[in-house]
Amino acid sequence: MKNIVKSGLVVALGMFLFSCSGEKSESKSTETSKPAKAEQAHDHSSHAGHDHGHSHDGHNHDHGAHKVEAAVANDPSVVSAEAVDPENAPRFNFEEDIYDFGTVDAGDIVEHVFKFTNTGKEPLIIQNASASCGCTVPEYSKEPIAPGADGKITVKFNSKNRRGVQSKTVTITANTVPKVTKLKIKGEVNAGPDLANGPVRQ
């Protein structure tokens, strides 16, 4: 009888130990699988974030490019380098690019009109005209000059407080080839009585 009881206790103890060992093994297996799942979730999140950022940046870039293209299309004075065909581009053909006004007295205002023809195949647009001196003021056609049409640039020179040989340059920027064209007005200014002993400018 005692042997039977002992055998039963041994069997029960063995089953208890086997059950505990199985629970520990299952717990370790569950803990091992958790980092792998977390890593997969992190990779998926990073990939999704990257794709979202890339798509957003590309959208903004395209949107900005469309704005620039629209601005260029709506402004006829903006001509890109790619749009200029040297063979068809607008061209100045001035009757003269230097005007000699001779000799004038100090205080006289000299005015001269530089006439030109657009010999190109596209409308000519003058974007700016500036002088090398504040005493010289250029005025130019603001409207596009059609191919074969004529235009003009009026230059006024104020000889007040000037004496001696004068040479002033007018720089024109346009959608032509070449882009910059220069005109010159020159002459000599005699000093008036008010400049005999006063300051003068060359």
Automatic annotation (TrEMBL):
It comes from the Bacteria. InterPro entries: DUF1573 (IPR011467), Ig-like_fold (IPR013783). Residues 24-63 are annotated as: Disordered. It holds the Pfam family DUF1573. This is DUF1573 domain-containing protein.
